[in-house]
Amino acid sequence: MASVLQNVMAKLRAGETDNAYNLAVAQSTVLAKTVSYTLKVTDQYVVFNATTLTATLPTAVGHAGLVLRVKNLFNGNLTVATTSSQTVDGTTPAVLAQYAVNTYVSDGTNWYVF
Description:
This protein is mainly beta. It has one domain. It contains one helix and nine strands, in the order αβββββββββ. A hairpin with a 4-residue loop joins strand 8 and strand 9 (about 110-114).
């Protein structure tokens, strides 16, 4: 499974399509992070792969409709935090298990998972 996932991620990073998984990234960059990272409003796809990491979402304020995708490849949980007192589906911090991916959408005040 790991080699298949690595191949798919390599294709995503290169902007290629993998028809077996119906994956494509059009003119987007997949960021691979092995340290905690605060996402930027210009990020679209961020993959985390290391222990005890935190992905901090940027402020939702003033960014209604912003969509960010976060994936955890590490065999432990990834903490997804927010700025100020903003929430993700009414709570913070959120956690992503291994191989989980969430799409976070800002309503201009807080974040929601789709």
